[in-house]
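sanity check this:
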Amino acid sequence: MKINKRIKVSGRVQGVFFRKSTQQKAMELGIKGWVKNEAEGSVLVEIEGIPSVIVEMEVWLRHGPPMSKVESLEITDGEVLNYADFLILR
């Protein structure tokens, strides 16, 4: 059974390859969804997959790629939309 989570990642998360690194990690885990920069400086991620890999992705997002500095995650449950890929949105 798949679940959907929307996660707002705050901190130093733009300009540090956060979106590309998130896409690579999601594809490695078989997670579908998207990632995008928000105007106020956060990154928004929507992910779908089985609960165990979603938890693994949440753990990764708490640290992010090496040049980032994640300060907080805001996680909300969403509705499964059956995404086909994991995209970087602009």
Observations:
- The first strand starts at residue 3 and ends at 12.
